[in-house]
Sequence to fold (265 residues):
Amino acid sequence: MKNIKTATIYTFLALIFSIPAFGQITNRAGEIWKPVEVDGSKVVVTNAFVNFASGKRRFTGNTGCNQMTGTLTANSHSRIRITGTATTRRACKMMEGSVPEDTFLRALNHAVRYSRHGQMLDMFDKSGKRVVRFVSTPNEAPDDAPAGNVSGLDDQKWYLESIANRRTLVAITGVFVNFIAEKGTAGGDTGCNVFGGSYTAGKSNIRIADIMSTMRACEEDGKMQLEREFLDGLKNATRYEIRDGHLKLYRKNAPLLTFRGEPKG
Fold:
């Protein structure tokens, strides 16, 4: 019984001490941590970032290619541990001057200590070598920013109403897309096949990729043509707009798809 009480006290103290420590590395509202140096090499250009949300023990971010999430623990002695990192599986051609994805992930996983000075956050490995230096910058919502509730995309289930601002050849029945922000996934039904993929979104930009679907053939009523135009619209979308309960997807300024929103059930 004494051992149980002692263990409980230590656990409670660990939680108490970890709270202010975690607060030292959480992002201020509207900011993210962008890497400027990884494994001794300066990062010239990258879409990579991490977001340590206040009050949570999980983090989100981007490797510069794929969305990522994981678990973060920190204590009052500037110790840190990043575990359970998971990413999407998109293949990307990295820009010159950026940090390779595996290098960035390895640096995060090797971090055992951190130090913050104002807008700068350093992480060190067990030998004392600095493995990552971050700078806190405004979240400008680049194309590869993680999906999030701020976008409003995952608030409703979106049913297709029109393609390129014109009526479709057949009545649109049961064609929809559903966004799940916490997983960064988009999926639904084409009216013929079930499909799924990944998405990233900012304040107005969007990218839907890696779409896969079942292979059922639906020749009746032009459903295959509708499916092709619907999926092409999702894949080609670069911008979105939500207004008056409707979601519109665009390729730059060209309208692609219009949806009406309904509560998720």
